[in-house]
Design goal:
The chain has 16 helices and two strands. It is elongated and about 75 Å long. It folds into two domains: 203 residues, Lysozyme; 99 residues. 56% of the residues lie in helices and 1% in strands.
Length: 396
Amino acid sequence: MRTKSRLLGLTLSTLIATGLVFGGSVPANAESIPAIAKELFQKMVGYGATPEVASGLLGNSHQESGMNPAAIQGGGSKAGMTCNGSTSRTSGMAIGLFQWDGIRKNNLLCAAEKAGKPWTDVDFQLKFAFEIEMKQEDPFTKKAYGSKAKSFCATVSDKVDCGKVNTNGFPDGAKGFLKGVYPEGATVEFAGYWERPGKPHLERRLMMTNKVYKEFKGLDGITATDQSSTTKPKEGSDKKSDALGLVGERELTGMGSSPEWDDVTTPEDANYSGLGIGDQFRLTKAGDAIASEKQPTLYAAQIGISMIGLMFMLWAVLIFACAMWDKANTIFEFRAVRLVTFGQMEYVDDKDDEGGSRVGIGKLLVRLIAGFGVGLMLVSGVFFGMVESALTMFSQ
């Protein structure tokens, strides 16, 4: 009787622990608007976004970082976040309001260093997003990203009118995107063109978008869907680019003396002759990143590697649960570890019985920790970033 009670208690404990790990989250609709949201909303409208678009941006930012400008994916340390530092070049430790990653993260860190600002500064991050990335690298013109927005919208077609979502690229890029008057559409568009996440979780993004729009659309000086209420970005963005540490548009050979929004080219189109070595390096890397994002095979490989990593992690959890079952099981003859490993491993309680495929709890834990660690590296993107950096290094 005591053995049966012990076995039942162990089984219930395992199920409860599994539920806490994989299901213990707060319902999305119970989340409140972060205190910083009002400030961000007003500043985004000041940069030219309509209230509807500003709400969509904040819905995305909430999913990416909780609207926390100091957020680091995985809770990493700020110490390694330096311009061209090894940490800043690897994927899997995205930073900031919109979780910049890879070369985009490195550009943000370099610009902050040149401007003498901490990369966690809210005003700096908004300036970088609106005055640099939305103009010089403008992802909203790319039809490939529009296809991603289309696939995203299909997953929430019951909540969003996908016919109102731009999925073919904006002819006038970010300038056109910022004029949007449909909050849900702006949420999907920003997720597809800008964020491009592996798993969008659009329900949570849309939930916060609607809360923000309802809360702030009536603020003083802001009128929903009234384009005249927004402020256009100031002229002379090339000088602001210089202050942020990126190459000014007038320094690029072949550029006009004072380009407008529609005339700005991306780094891949620029002629780098006459630039300093450091500037050439940053622009070349940015061009490589843009080119790689156009390759669906690279994206598919990243998804595949993440799935393999997830399988490693689930395998480790499963083997540990089976080992605990075998340790307590004195009723049934079969051994769960042996069953799930197809006879390649068997748990033994007595250390004297260890040998070959027969392992005790100590050796089993070593293998499980190693397997879980490998899986975590694959899922987080650290392994993919290392391989990508190595391939880039050898190809140069």
